[in-house]
Amino acid sequence: MRSKTCKNVVLEHERNFNLWLYTYLAYATRIVHYCVANMPGGVPRTSTLALSNATLPFTLALAEQGTDTALRGNPHLLNGLNVCAGVITDRAVADTFDLDLVDPLAALDLR
């Protein structure tokens, strides 16, 4: 979800950014959001390595422990569970689709 004070800036037009920023701030709430879509695309190798390093421990936990044990043993991994055994386990998903929310640990017991 994008903030009301946020506008996308395209890096191709960076030389015009200072003029645009001054004009935008004159009419906005004086809150600066520098919004450039796909910033990782500017440094693909670095962003790939960062993403791999951040997700590898979760991948290894799932592979070595199995999904049930890994999810029950890691609250961060469990927080990423959206749907399990046909029920919604994530509040944002449940609210978005106006569906019932089930505790993730209870959903694991339904499998």
Structural class label: mainly alpha
- Weakly predicted, low-confidence segments: none
Oligomer: single chain
Give, in spatial order, the strands making up the sheet with the most strands: 1-2
Query: Gyration radius, to the nearest Å?
Result: 21 Å
Q: Can you tell me the overall shape?
A: flat
Tally of DSSP β-strands: 4
Mean pLDDT: 80
Q: Report the total helices.
A: 6
Percent helix, as a range, is 40-55%
In short:
It is built from six helices and four strands. It is mainly alpha-helical and 111 residues long. Helix 2 crosses helix 3 (67-73).
Walk me through what this model shows:
The chain is mainly alpha-helical. The protein has a domain at 7-37. The chain contains six helices and four strands, in the order E-H-E-H-H-H-E-E-H-H. The strands form two sheets. A two-stranded parallel ribbon has the order 1-2. Strands 3-4 form a two-stranded antiparallel ribbon. Helix 2 (44-65) packs across helix 3. The chain is flat, with a radius of gyration of 21 Å. The protein starts with 6 loop residues before the first strand and ends with a helix.
Summarize the SSE layout with pairings.
Blueprint lengths: L6 E2 L8 H11 L6 E2 L8 H22 L1 H7 L1 H5 L3 E2 L2 E2 L2 H7 L6 H6 L2
Parallel strand pairs: 1-2
Antiparallel strand pairs: 3-4
Helix pairs in contact: 2-3
Descriptive tags:
single chain; 111 residues; mainly alpha; two-stranded parallel sheet; two-stranded antiparallel sheet; 6 helices; 52% helix; flat
